[in-house]
């Protein structure tokens, strides 16, 4: 699992900001919007399609994507969808989009040229995409078992995903009771921690550490990070088994 992007919806550096993190020369303080690449012997798939997806995949030297999972349909998690066109052209088949019904409805509206048959008649280079509706039941993808995890993002139900002994939980401010048992026995937990101050729709660092203390993974990474958290300074304040994530971080899937 590669964390392609680890930043908030505005990214880091933020437009027009001259703070110490936004002007930092530490490459770990440069954070594109949140997205994940999972590579297996049977192919590769994505979690979310952030706005910088093309740049992220070029940087990772990815040649083919077999499918996409979506956590939710906020702009910073979907606006790179058109960058999937190249994979449909290469394979001559539609790229499967695994998502909940509410996400499908938003994608159909936001990218109507890709899904509206009438518009498609006049649109050149239409992406080849298809929807595969998912719920909370586990399913197989590229030879891996994927377990969806119900999370709450403010008041919005969203999904995290557990793959083997790694759980990816971005954009979360509450974990429902039914999800906690699915987080048992983790080697790695990737969890939302936007800043030190409280936030209405995201865990802050203190809340994320409380989740980590309860789940007790072997190691945890904090993601969806704002410009208020300097990488080196924040890491020096965290427990030994917890670190800020950074773009390009690779996590083994046992």
UniProtKB/TrEMBL annotation:
| SUPFAM superfamilies (UniProt xref) | Metallo-hydrolase/oxidoreductase (SSF56281)
Under the heading Gene3D superfamilies, the entry gives:
Ribonuclease Z/Hydroxyacylglutathione hydrolase-like
What keywords would UniProt list here? Hydrolase
A GO term, aspect molecular function: phosphoribosyl 1,2-cyclic phosphate phosphodiesterase activity
Q: Which residues are in the Metallo-beta-lactamase domain?
A: 32-227
Q: Does the keyword Hydrolase apply?
A: yes
Pfam assignment, any one: Lactamase_B_2
InterPro entries with a match to the protein in the record: Metallo-B-lactamas, RibonucZ/Hydroxyglut_hydro
Entry EC number(s): 3.1.4.55
The domain of life is Bacteria
Q: What is this protein called?
A: Phosphoribosyl 1,2-cyclic phosphodiesterase
- Tell me the organism: Thalassoglobus neptunius
Task: Identify the coding gene.
Answer: phnP
């Amino acid at each position: 699992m590669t964390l392609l992007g680890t930043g908030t919806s505005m990214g880091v550096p933020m437009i027009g900001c001259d703070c110490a993190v936004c002007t930092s020369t530490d490459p770990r303080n440069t954070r594109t919007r949140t997205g994940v690449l999972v590579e297996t012997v049977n192919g590769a798939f994505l979690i979310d399609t952030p706005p910088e997806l093309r740049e992220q995949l070029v940087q990772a030297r990815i040649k083919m994507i077999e499918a996409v999972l979506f956590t939710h349909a906020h702009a910073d998690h979907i606006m790179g969808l058109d960058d999937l066109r190249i994979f449909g052209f290469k394979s001559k088949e539609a790229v499967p989009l695994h998502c909940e019904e509410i996400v499908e409805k938003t994608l159909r509206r936001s990218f109507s040229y890709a899904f509206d048959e009438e518009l498609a008649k006049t649109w050149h280079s239409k992406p080849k995409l298809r929807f595969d509706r998912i719920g909370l039941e586990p399913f197989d993808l590229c030879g891996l078992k994927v377990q969806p995890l119900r999370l709450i993002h403010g008041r919005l139900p969203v999904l995290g995903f557990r793959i083997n002994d790694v759980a990816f939980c971005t954009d979360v401010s509450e974990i429902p009771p039914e999800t906690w048992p699915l987080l048992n026995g983790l080697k790695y937990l990737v969890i939302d921690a936007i800043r030190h101050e409280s936030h209405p729709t995201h865990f802050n660092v203190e809340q994320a550490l409380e989740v980590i203390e309860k789940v007790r993974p072997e190691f945890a990474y904090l993601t969806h990070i704002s410009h208020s958290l300097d990488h080196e300074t924040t890491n020096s304040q965290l427990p030994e088994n917890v670190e800020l994530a950074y773009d390009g971080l690779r996590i083994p899937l046992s």
